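Q: Convert this sequence to structure tokens.
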Amino acid sequence: MRGIVLMLAAFGAMIAPGAAATLCGDKDLPLIVDRQVRQPPRLAEPAARRPFRDPAFGTCLVRLTDRTADLAPGDSSGGLKNEYARVQAFNADASLILIRGTAASWYLYDARTLAPLRRLPFEGTVDPRWDARDPATLYVIDGTRLVAHDVRGEHLRVVRDFAAEFPGQRLAAVWTRYEGSPSRDGRTWGLMAEDENWIPAAFLVYDLAADRIVAKRDLRGVPGIADDIDNVTISPLGNFLVAAFGKYCERGETGSDARPCGFMVYDRNLTHGRGLARIMGHYDLALDATGREVAVYQDVDTDEIAMLDLASGKRTALLPLDFSRHAFGLHFSGQGPPGWALVSTHDASADSILWMDDQVFAVELEPGGRVVRLAHTHSRVDFEAEHFYFAEPHATVSRDFTRVLFTTNWGRVGTDRVETTLIDLPRDWWTRLP
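A:
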């Protein structure tokens, strides 16, 4: 535990100094670590930018966005959300927040005052990712091009057009396919090239600092490649390219270098691929308490939240999942400091049946690790209703784990009228845990 505390403290100091008080002004907020069923209280939707306490857990919350006032004229979005659990929404110095309109528009918010700033000129681009060091730089993918945007103005700069790496081929995109992120230092990117028919053509490992293609692996002719690859990313320290294949492996089997399937891990030079899981639910990559690169995921074969060591393949069970009473979904964010991951859950009921229903909570990345419960989401996700995807909380965490964002429809089933809520945690919350 001492090692975890030291790493978290050091990581927090890298972001910004600050007192333990939250937006609610309370330095003695409770942190709930039990696993009792706690019903979400019936609350009216809170006003925007006015902090309040979660009645069940005592944490400090604030509705960051206001869909009735923050959307730019002409934007057809019904609401505003954090992009995804696996994407870092906060810039390098935690002064800005990137928020997505439901019609794929993009907005900046001031992380300190919570004020909306402006809409960004990103029409037609995907995968916006903050620079890890420069708080003013945001990268986006425009087809086959990686483009840097200075958010202080409207300056756009093409960093690299990857089409030049594929002479004689026609590509639709070179990207992560929505869910990937660069390494924690921002230097290494894991990308996938897709041809004009959106069939995977190659993996790429790219060194941004050196503007150099580290490795390229041709995927044409690989068995099953037309079955799609759901997403790719680079590992937190840049040692591995990870690919989640749409083709699952047979029970009892994992993918191989010659016949990939399921959850695949490739070395940085793309010379060798290994299958670590035959099938992968939602996941994110993280660092455990010792700094090892891991995948935190839903194991659909064992009904557990589990952790896979990317280097050794060792699997560690973290929490059991009970689907015998009702169905629910999970997302994971490993965007915070070493030793912890964030989990958000959703289902169609307004009531909690299980202790983790409709919640955001932190889980410690070690066997028997602790759970810290943070908030009810008040979002109802009925998979038979329209716009259900926008209602999924997709909670994501800041680099120092003091701020969490999640999406909520506040019970408005079948609509994209969603908002983003911020959880504000004391900077030293991990020192208070029993």
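Confidence is low (pLDDT under 50) at residues 1-19.
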